Amino acid sequence: MRRIFVGLGTVLAASLAPAASAHDFFLLPVQFSDDARGPVAIQATVGSSFPKPETVVTADRVEQLTAMGNGEPTVRVAGAGPAALNLEVAGATPGLLVTGVGTKARDVDYAEDRIPLILGEYRVLPGAAAAVEALSKPRTWQVVSRRFAKTFVCVASCTDRSAADRSFGAHLEFVGSRSSADHFRLLAHGKPLTNYPIDLVGSDGARQHLTTDAQGDIHLPAGDRGAMMLFAAKLEPPTGAGRFTLDLTSLTFSRP
Description:
ten-stranded mixed β-sheet; 2 helices; 19 strands
């Protein structure tokens, strides 16, 4: 794994941000409703103002690149743009298309000055945050960081949503519902993550703090419409000496 040291004065695009400004890895389709006349264009980016792409996720960082839906969808890297990695999905037929991108795990060492900002940016369980606080000071917080992003695109029509609730098998992942565009579920290692904090970001960039229910489900607020992103972070302390594991996941979609 590549090891990255983060301390005072270091500029690292995907991780350095004020506590109030999250830097999320997400997928942004050129259109959430595509006419199916050609490849579906999607951008992979890191940004602090969804749905604005800001920072390119370089091709060498990508470990998993996959798509599912009707037809035989296949996804490829089309090249890097100024603010995102450009992807193309070919072979999709009418119905819901789901595309997922996972990045390679990285070793990241956070210096004492960075720790409060990271814990302020990502909403994790109190016990996991307490394990970080319990480290001897001045701390060097050692983390294995893993990121996974998905997007939903309606190809011609979303009448067929059979791919919505299918998992790509990521460590942390949102899935949808076949019967409703309003309900989602958060999975950790394939199992529902219940009573867990998640974020919902609207097309205006406003960030709402929500919680999964006793089944791990997320019910969208009734009045919210347009492009949206679900985001979650899961922090797992080591069983002994070693690195914490930080999983970050997102799902982008449009609600009519």
